[in-house]
Write a structure and sequence with these properties.
This protein is α+β, with helices and mostly antiparallel strands and about 270 residues long. The protein has a four-stranded mixed β-sheet. The longest helix is centred in the N-terminal third of the chain and has 20 residues. The protein is globular and about 55 Å long.
Length: about 270
Amino acid sequence: MRSPKETSLDKKLLDSVSGEARRAAEALIADEEVQALQEYANVVSIRRLNYNDHGPVHMRKVALNAMLMLDLLAAGGVKTSLETDGAGTVEDSRVAVLLAAFLHDVGMSVGRQHHETNSAILSEPIISRLLADLYPRDVMRRTAIKCLAIEGIEGHMATQRIHSIEAGLILVADGCDMEKGRSRIPMMLSIEPRVGDIHQYSAAAITKVDIGPGEHRPIRISIAMRESVGFFQVEEVLLQKVNMSPVKPQIELLAAVEGQAPRRYLG
């Protein structure tokens, strides 16, 4: 059974897309195998490994972040890689990004190490199945979208070079899910210090992540925190991902402790 938070995020996501992207979002939300993998990934992440949320709520937030940033890029006249390559439309790019966002962390159901590769392995048959329904007569479009989705999944940890705007959006959208709610459950369950605690405490310090249009670049990411430990999350997680993303030239990044002047990292 889905939590109220998941249901709320599902509504926001469906309201943010239309056309083929909405059909893809509806299919992902309704798919029982996707939901089961997301939920079990969270069991392993939180209960077994004491990490932050890597389940249904996190993956929906990444999808919402990515859709918002894709809209901002389009408004700024930035084309997706599928458009630039002449291999698809911006709607096809939205579908690829949605697939990657919803499935990028399902490999946590196996374990933390190499989870991005395990996510790709677990996701490939699901992606193929869903795309066959969405594009039943267009093998080339299905192939291009699947390859982009897999690139986004494999590349979301910034451990390997990626080359598409679509995959780059997953990197940044994933890094932007750092608000305090993401660490709430593991911190409640934790009794004594364990591996991953710095991620929990730094995420717990983040009070707000705003994504909107920038002054000089299409995307501005503004982060507010109540304690300076939150800079760990910005500098060691988000900034590392932004630096590996092809979307980096389009981003302004600022972070501040509440009541203090912001640090400007990009733009």
